[in-house]
């Protein structure tokens, strides 16, 4: 199963007010394991960045001045997420911005959901931890995910953190033998546990002694006297 963990940074909070995406970060999981493939682009929003947003991600307008527009990166982005299950924390926010960007372009590109399925990890976290804080920082603390290097928000960094959190929230990786599905030999791993076949080892049969049989029979008689029925061991 192919999954893509996605995050964005923006110029503000509302696409309806003309705010736009300035960074997209995606990391790929296949069969619940990171593949080291990722998609990451800074985007020139061609508008000002709100001070509140700048305080969150630290990405300046000057830094973005020579970056590509969303139109220039959209084909590669859609190809990266195509056919995947896309995991987003608070999905309506990011999906709303992506769909707003798609709607600004010429041609009918549709919406993000036309290219992939979307899973909201915030809804998942709320189901698992009702009544608790379920921000990325709160979940990192709860699941012991290291985010000490996260002094500012960043789309690729947050996507990598969310990938770790998602795997822990949903039970971790499914295969401990990391070489099983990628073609490598798992027995070359020094930590590989080799199981010994016991088919050729005769198993001894130990019979009860006369004393043990007598004690067992006495106990059965006591049970029958108390219950008025023969014990299940006599049936």
In brief:
The chain has helices at residues 51-57, 61-64, 70-81, 91-104, 121-128, 136-143, 155-169, 210-227; strands spanning 2-10, 21-30, 33-42, 85-88, 117-120.
Q: Outline, from the CA principal axes?
A: elongated
Strand count, sense and barrel status of the largest sheet are: 5 strands, mixed
Fraction of residues in helix: 25-40%
Number of strands: 5
What Rg is obtained from the alpha carbons, in whole angstroms? Answer: 29 Å
Percentage of β-strand residues: 15-25%
The name CATH uses for the topology is Nucleotidyltransferase, domain 5
What is the overall number of helices?
8
CATH superfamily: Ribonuclease H-like superfamily/Ribonuclease H
- Residue-averaged pLDDT: 85
By CATH, the architecture is named: 2-Layer Sandwich
H/E element sequence: EEEHHHEHEHHHH
What is the CATH first-level class name?
Alpha Beta
N- to C-terminal distance: 51 Å
For the biggest β-sheet, the strand order reads: 3-2-1-4-5
Low-confidence runs of at least 5 consecutive residues: 173-196
Q: Structural class of the secondary elements?
A: alpha/beta
Compute the number of structural domains.
Answer: 1
């Amino acid at each position: 199963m192919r999954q893509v963990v996605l995050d964005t940074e923006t110029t503000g909070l509302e696409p309806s007010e003309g705010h736009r995406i300035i960074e997209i970060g995606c990391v790929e999981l296949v069969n619940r394991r990171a593949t080291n493939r990722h998609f990451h682009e800074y985007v020139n929003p061609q508008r000002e960045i709100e001070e509140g947003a700048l305080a969150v991600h630290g990405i300046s307008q000057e830094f973005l001045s020579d970056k590509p527009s969303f139109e220039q990166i959209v084909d590669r982005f859609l190809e990266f997420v195509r056919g995947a299950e896309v995991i987003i924390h608070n999905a309506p926010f990011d999906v709303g911005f992506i769909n707003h960007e798609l709607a600004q372009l010429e041609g009918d590109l549709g919406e993000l959901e036309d290219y992939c399925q979307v899973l909201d990890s915030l809804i998942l976290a709320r189901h698992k931890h009702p009544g608790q804080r379920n921000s990325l920082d709160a979940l990192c603390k709860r699941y012991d995910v290291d985010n000490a290097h996260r002094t500012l928000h960043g789309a690729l960094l947050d996507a990598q953190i969310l990938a770790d959190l998602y795997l822990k929230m949903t039970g971790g990786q499914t295969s401990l033998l990391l070489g099983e599905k990628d073609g490598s030999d798992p027995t070359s791993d020094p930590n590989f546990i080799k199981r010994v076949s016991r088919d050729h080892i005769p198993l001894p049969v130990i019979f009860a002694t006369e004393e043990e049989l007598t004690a067992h029979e006495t106990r059965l008689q006591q049970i029958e006297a108390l219950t008025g029925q023969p014990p299940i061991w006599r049936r």
